[in-house]
Write the structure tokens for this entry.
Amino acid sequence: MKPSPRAGVPAPKPRRRSGPVVYLTKQVEFSASHRLFNPDFSWEKNCEVFGICNNPNGHGHNYVLDVTLAGRPDPQTGMIIDLKQLKEILDALLIAHVDHKNLNLDVDFLQDCVPTVENLVIRFWERLDGRIPGCVLHELSLYESRTNFVRYQGAERKSGR
């Protein structure tokens, strides 16, 4: 049997898209509960630092997450990513793990942190970065309420590297 003419030849790399970079934001929502406390603190110190958010039974939020991607539109589809595909990725990598969960107890990737909105957005970035095909994760904005939210653009961009 003769080997295929392409045997041993690496597959061609996908061509990089050219043209302007655009930023696409997909918004997703989830509901979750948490308790803000540090197990290394005394009860008094936790109450002082976290106030009513240190309630031993926790409290809940209806979170809103804006996921902003950077990319160049595909010349055939005009999209940087199909929004249905993006929703499926976000659901599988993130929403299915946090929606209607106790963030302190039910979410493995949050077990070793105080689940503040600041820590959540960093952990969410770690789950998503590099896992959305054809795009670069540009920014996450996580809203804990109408009036409290954080934005994060990754550790490298934040530190100026």
Observations:
- The helical segments are 43-50, 83-98, 117-128, 155-158.
- The chain has one domain: 22-158.
- DSSP finds four helices and five strands in the chain.
- Residues 1-6 have pLDDT under 50 and may be disordered.
